[in-house]
Amino acid sequence: MPVVEHDLAHKRFLIRDQDAIAAEMTYVTSSPELYIIDHTLVDPAYRGQGLGDKLVDAMVVYARENGIKILPLCPFAKGRFEHYSEYWDVLHK
Known about the structure:
The chain is of the alpha+beta class. The protein contains two helices and five strands; from the N terminus they run ββββαβα. It has a five-stranded mixed beta sheet. Residues 1-93, 5-92 form the N-acetyltransferase domain.
């Protein structure tokens, strides 16, 4: 089971496979209460395993725990937020 790490210093959520980064989602902090997802990337060797979804899930959990709203600008994250209503409580409107 892949483990999602939150790298606060580099403003990203990531999944590693040993020393390689298998998947990464970066964000910009617009304010302490608003994070903007600007990029999601899954290494081609790891695609089809749901790693992008795991990154979005981890960020949503973090947002809920910390009173943060999310503005998804990258196409992948934006599509997930549009499709899954369970994320809407942290969606910046």
